[in-house]
Amino acid sequence: MISYRINEGGSISPKVDYYPDGTMKIDLLPVNECRSIAIEWHYENELEQMQLYYIASNLREHFPKAAMTLFMPYLPNARMDRVHSDTEVFTLKYFCKFINSMGFDKVTVLDVHSSVGAALLDRVENISPRELILGAMERAGFNFETDYLFFPDEGSMKRYSSMFEAKQVGFGIKKRDWSTGKILGLEVEGDDPAGKNVFIIDDICAYGGTVYYSAQKLKELGCADINVFFTHCENSIEKGKLFGCGMIKNIYTTNSVCTLPENDILKIITL
């Protein structure tokens, strides 16, 4: 979903219709004076890239002296931050070139999955999720002295462990079938979670397999309630096992990419 603000005004959603051939007809509200343009993109699909290009190009053409920024909390293609063969397309690189071509004065992202993505964007600000996580921890009643902080893999541990000083900490080591890439299970390293409430942190969730296996192992080890925070949660989570597994009390995530309604488990943090 794309919206924009002119001169610190209210958020405006463009009117988008389609011609019979599938091309877009976009109408923006008339503007007399423009000093600044703030575009916000909460990614839903790749077709929105062309909407963004048309809208930004139109506004830039009409107001060449106005400062124009982009708030794009979820960076599409962020997982494709390297290629392993000449046949793979480095989509993140080309996506970032596409964003850079629009000449934004600043591009703001949230907790980008890889430092490669931030490095490929011009004039980028990568916002830390620390305050969002602390807010979720407060809602979950997390106690840094007595509860258990868990990172489902070494990557999330490296990303987030320095942000918090919990007394009881653990992380997961995945067991995979390397011929298929499928996760077979997970081992827990660190402090003993027995009897402790657990708070799990990760950046992106697709189907939630890693956190599912984390919760399964933590419950085997005797932990109490499990709460989870994802910075970015794709709608595909409802096709995974987390909602119906009975092991998760709450999942906190932002509306950066998730458009699912809240339910008994899923709690949405509006950016």
Commentary on this structure:
- This protein is of the alpha/beta class.
- The protein folds into two domains: 2-127, Rossmann fold (3-Layer(aba) Sandwich); 130-269, 3-Layer(aba) Sandwich (Rossmann fold).
- The chain contains six helices and 14 strands.
- The strands form three sheets. Strands 10-9-8-11-12-13-14 form a seven-stranded mixed beta sheet, with helices on both faces. Strands 1-4-5-6-7 form a five-stranded mixed beta sheet, covered by helices on one side. The protein has a two-stranded antiparallel sheet with strand order 2-3.
Radius of gyration: 21 Å
Query: What does the largest sheet look like?
Result: 7 strands, mixed
Strand order of the largest sheet: 10-9-8-11-12-13-14
Tally of individual helices: 6
Range of strand content: 25-35%
The helix/strand series, from N terminus to C terminus, equals: EEEEHEHEHEHEHEEEHEEE
The general outline is: elongated
Number of domains: 2
CATH class of the largest domain: Alpha Beta
Mean pLDDT, nearest integer?
A: 94
Helix content: 10-25%
Runs in which pLDDT lies below 50 for 5 or more consecutive residues are none
Structural class assignment: alpha/beta
Distance between the termini: 13 Å
Kindly report the CATH topology of the largest domain: Rossmann fold
Summed up, what is this model?
The protein is of the alpha/beta class.
Notable features of this structure?
Rossmann fold, alpha/beta, elongated, 2 domains, five-stranded mixed beta sheet, 271 residues, 6 helices
Secondary-structure map with pairings?
Elements: E1 2-6, E2 15-18, E3 24-27, E4 36-41, H1 47-62, E5 67-71, H2 91-100, E6 106-110, H3 115-120, E7 124-127, H4 130-140, E8 148-151, H5 154-160, E9 168-177, E10 182-190, E11 198-205, H6 209-220, E12 226-233, E13 250-254, E14 266-269
Parallel strand pairs: 4-5, 5-6, 6-7, 8-9, 8-11, 11-12, 12-13, 13-14
Antiparallel strand pairs: 1-4, 2-3, 9-10
